[in-house]
Amino acid sequence: MNPRQPPATPRSAPTTTRSISPQRLLVQTFPVDVMRWGRRFRENIQLLADPATGDAVIIDPGLESPALEAAIARRNLKIRAILNTHGHFDHIEANDHDRRRYKVKVHAHRADRHFYGKTKAPNKPDVLWDAEGELTFGSLKIRVLHVPGHSRGSVFFLARDLLFSGDTLFLENVGMTHGDGRATSGQMMRLQLEGIRKKILTLPPSVRVFPGHGPPTDIGHEKAHNPRLTGKRRRARPVTY
Ligand SMILES: [Zn+2]
Ligand SMILES: [Zn+2]
Question: Are 45 and 21 in contact (CB under 8 A)?
Fold first, then answer.
């Protein structure tokens, strides 16, 4: 130390009340291979948990997953609910298995109710919502954002800065749409893109996005690079979900 230097101003004394930043929510993704029509659909089951309390939900249990069950047991999590982003088979097959195992209810949007009960497993939801809103499961608060298009009952789940996008928004792509007698596939696509622009791209760029298939992304990346959303004439990757 240079002795000619004036004495450093004393550092402020340590305070007794330290602001404790809230613990981040935890997301763990468990890919499962759902087989249908001789094809493999690799779907992402998402486990969302508050490490501070152990409260947790399972999003889109496409298939029974021993890895998911092991993670829940290892972290001693309390599963509070099962949530479906939409009613397609590759997102709901283990609804009943997980419902019985954790003794919780399955939640989904009413507009997708016709998809349930068509498969071997009794996978019907217990709670159907009609509107958007906030769900509370212990310490977890989850906003439901309804963006029809991929299906009429497709929703996003937003928990703090984590967004679960089902088959509506992927890394640099959006979900495929189908005509359903009331609207053409093209009309459903326009509805989907409008919903994403209004409700999703208006979220902060740092919000992380966990899709039902493929790798995670974030809002900033999708705003800049998703060819279906930027309007730039780059071809989108084909999407088959
Ligand atoms: Zn789907
Ligand atoms: Zn899917």
Answer: no
Superfamily of domain 26-230 in the CATH hierarchy: Ribonuclease Z/Hydroxyacylglutathione hydrolase-like (3.60.15.10)
Nearest CA to 28 out of 63, 62, 75 is that of: 75
Around ion ligand 1, residues with a beta carbon closer than 5 Å are: 88, 167
At 13, the pLDDT band (50, 70, 90 cuts) reads very low
pLDDT per residue as tens digits for the range 21-69: 568 999 999 999 999 888 999 999 999 999 999 999 999 999 999 999 9
Q: Which of 66, 58, 65, 112 is nearest to 89 (CA)?
A: 112
Cβ-contact 71, 50 below 8 angstroms = no
How many degrees, rounded to 5, is the angle at CA 62 between CA 186 and CA 171? Answer: 50
The helix (H) or strand (E) run that includes residue 72 is helix 66-74
> Which among 173, 185, 166 has a CA at the least distance from the CA of 228?
173
Q: Strand pairing partners for 28? A: 47
Q: Strand (E) positions, 39-117?
A: 39-49, 55-59, 78-83, 106-109
Q: How many Å apart are CA 152 and CA 35, to the nearest integer?
A: 24
How far apart are the CA of 8 and the centre of ligand 1, in A? 63
Q: What is the 180 CA–ligand 1 centroid distance (Å)?
A: 14
Let me know if 129 is exposed, middle or buried by CB neighbors in 10 A (0-12, 13-18, 19+). middle
Domain ranges of the chain: 26-230
How many angstroms does the Cα of residue 95 sit away from the middle of ligand 1?
A: 15
